């Protein structure tokens, strides 16, 4: 969703109380100074680290590395692991302080796309600027669009990296695209894909354990960012309907909606509150305070890869481990 009154912020930023407002994804102004220079990064390097479990990447790329441009870091980390040394991966938005929805690309972003041989975007109206740049600046480059890969309906939840099946599908699509571009590296990319599967095993195991131990338990969320993951875990969404409708329509919830939410928390009708720490505003803080007062566990999640996390799976594993603890599941 596009932002209303909240401000998207980095994980280390202070929480400022602002007037009421509700948004699934919020931002600093999209044209904030130095957003591009700080967010455009080659930190998703061409060299993949050994995957968890001891499966190391091949020693060298057998062909010329593929130039890959990725719109956002949620997919940038994955693309970098899949490409390994056979990819020069540049992620345009690698900053938790910039909202991809309304980002205004700079000329340097257009230049980055010009040299792309492969483009990876989220799609689903999450990063439309990236799809436009791909069409104008890299018209001959194949595009892996997560929304199209997963057949996400128009207006659907765009936070596809929180959908385990979407992560698998997009990883497969990226590997297929890389292999088609550089057939000589087919075995290399196959090995990289297997290494990624190994690295994701703790993530898969956490999902399986939480689903086995907490399926049917309830959650409510200040935003929809985690909903795909919650569904995969078998959790029941008890976010009040009026609040969810306001969120879907990108409008402020009514006082009655907020009261229903806080009452449900106070009555312990909700087992856990999912809280996006990359937003700021009086409403989510009010809900967090109500949960804390009622003794309802609060699990912090983020929309983008937070500072200090060096891999997609490390980011996700940490959040799932915190959720398991909140739900009383041993992992």
From TrEMBL:
Region (Disordered): 33-58
Keyword Metal-binding among record annotations: yes
UniProt GO MF annotations: metal ion binding
Compartments, record wording: Cell envelope
Main location group: other
Native source organism of the sequence: Mycolicibacterium sarraceniae
GO BP: any one term: metal ion transport
Extent of the signal sequence: 1-23
Keyword vocabulary terms for this entry: Metal-binding, Signal, Transport
InterPro entries noted in UniProt: Bact_metal-bind_prot9, ZnuA-like
GO CC entries: cell envelope
Protein name (Swiss-Prot/TrEMBL): ABC transporter substrate-binding protein
């Amino acid at each position: 969703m596009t932002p209303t009154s909240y401000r998207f912020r980095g994980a280390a930023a202070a929480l400022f109380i602002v007037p009421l407002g509700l948004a699934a994804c919020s931002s600093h102004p999209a044209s904030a100074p130095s957003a591009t220079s700080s967010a455009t990064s080659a930190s998703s390097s061409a060299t993949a680290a050994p995957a968890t479990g001891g499966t190391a990447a091949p020693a060298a790329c057998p062909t010329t590395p593929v130039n890959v441009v990725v719109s956002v870091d949620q997919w940038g980390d994955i693309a970098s692991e899949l490409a390994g040394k056979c990819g020069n991966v540049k992620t345009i938005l690698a900053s938790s302080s910039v909202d991809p929805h309304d980002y205004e690309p700079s000329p340097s972003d257009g230049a980055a796309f010009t040299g792309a041989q492969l483009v990876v975007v989220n799609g689903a109206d999450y990063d439309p600027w990236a799809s436009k740049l791909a069409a104008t600046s890299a018209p001959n480059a194949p595009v892996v669009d997560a929304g199209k890969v997963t057949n996400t309906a128009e207006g659907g939840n765009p936070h596809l990296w929180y959908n385990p099946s979407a992560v698998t599908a997009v990883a497969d699509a990226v590997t297929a695209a890389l292999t088609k571009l550089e057939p000589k590296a087919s075995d290399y990319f196959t090995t990289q894909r297997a290494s990624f599967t190994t690295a994701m095993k703790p993530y898969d195991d956490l999902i399986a354990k939480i689903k086995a131990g907490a399926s049917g338990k309830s959650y409510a969320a200040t935003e929809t960012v985690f909903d795909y993951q919650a569904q995969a875990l078998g959790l029941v969404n008890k976010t009040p309907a009026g609040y969810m409708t306001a969120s879907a329509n990108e409008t402020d919830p009514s006082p009655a909606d907020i009261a229903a939410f806080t009452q449900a928390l106070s009555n312990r009708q909700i087992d856990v509150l999912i809280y996006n720490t990359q937003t700021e505003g009086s409403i989510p803080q009010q809900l967090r305070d109500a949960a804390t007062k009622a003794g309802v566990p609060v699990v912090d999640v983020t929309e983008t890869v937070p500072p200090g996390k060096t891999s997609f799976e490390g980011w996700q594993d940490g959040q799932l481990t915190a959720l398991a603890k909140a739900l009383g599941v041993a992992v």
